[in-house]
Amino acid sequence: MIFDFLVYSFNSLKVRKTRTLLTMVGIFIGIAAVVSLISLGSGFQKAVLSQFANIGTDKLTIQASETGYGPPGSTALKKLGDEDFEAVKNVAGVKAAAKRYIRAAKISFKDKTLVSVISSIPQDKEGRELVLNALNLDVVNGRFLKSDDVHKVIIGYSFFSEEKFPKKINTGDKLKINNFEFEVAGVLEKSGNPQFNEIFLLNEKDLEEILSIKDESDLIVAQVSNLNDIGRVSDDIKKELRKTREVKEGKEDFNVETPQKTLESVNTILNVVQIVVIGIAAISLIVGGIGIMN
Questions:
Q1: Cβ pair 189, 161 in contact under 8 A
Q2: Position 235 pLDDT exceeds 80
Q3: 207: buried, middle or exposed (CB in 10 Å: 19+, 13-18, 0-12)?
Q4: Of 149, 216, 226, 249, which residue is the least packed, with the fewest Cβ within 10 Å?
Q5: pTM attached to this predicted model
Q6: Burial (CB count within 10 angstroms: exposed 0-12, middle 13-18, buried 19+), residue 265
C-alpha cells in the first residue's frame, strides 16, 4: 500500500513538472528566509553586545536617582557633589574616576536658536583619558579639545552634514551656547549612536561657567584596577556614598551600575527580539507547510 502511494506520488511529480518546480522553489525560498532571519537576529545581538564590550567591562557608572525625564542625573532631586566624587576616587580598587555633565542648552548660530545636549570633557589628565577611552570618539574634521582650550567646542556630525541651522556648521565657525561665544575646534566622526551625532562637547570648566554649576555632577565614571574585584569595589562605593549622603542601606538616592547589569538588561531585550524573529520564521514555515500539503 505504502509502495503504491510512493509510486503514485512520484508519477504525479513527473507529470506536473511546473508545479513540482514551483513548489521546490517555494521550499528553498522559505528555508533561506528562515535561516536569514535567525542569522540576522543572532548577528544583531552579537553586534550590539560587542559595542558594549568596546566601552569597557572595567568601568562603573554612578549617578543620583532621577526624578523625571532628561539627561542622566540632571533631573535628580539631590545631585552628586564634589564630596561624593572624592569619596569614589578614594575607594580602594578604583584606578581612576571622572565626573561628567550632560545638560541641555540653547545653541545659537546664524540667527537661529535650538536646544541641544551639551556634555563635558574632564580637564585633569586621568579623568580625561578615562572618558575618552570609554566614549571611543574621534574627529573627522578639525581637532579634538585640548585641556587648556577656553571657549572651544566639538560638534556632532549631524550639525556638520545637515542644515539644522541656516548654514552647516564647520570648523572655525563661531556660535553661542547659552549666550557665550564658542569657536568650533572640530567635528566628531559619524557614530552609530544617534546621540553622539547631535551633541556638543565642551571642556568641564567652560560648561560649569555657562551653566553656573558648582559642587555637583550628573554622573561619575570609575575604572577599577582589577576586573575581578568589580563587585567588591561596587559595594565599597555604595558604602562610602551612603556615608557622604547620609542615607541608610535600602534607602539610597543614587545608583551604581556595573557593566554586568547593563549587559544583562540589554541581553534580555535582545533575547525578546530574537524570540520574535524566530516566531515570525515559525509562522512562515507553518504557512509554507500548509501550502505544500495543499
A1: no
A2: yes
A3: buried
A4: 249
A5: 0.66
A6: exposed
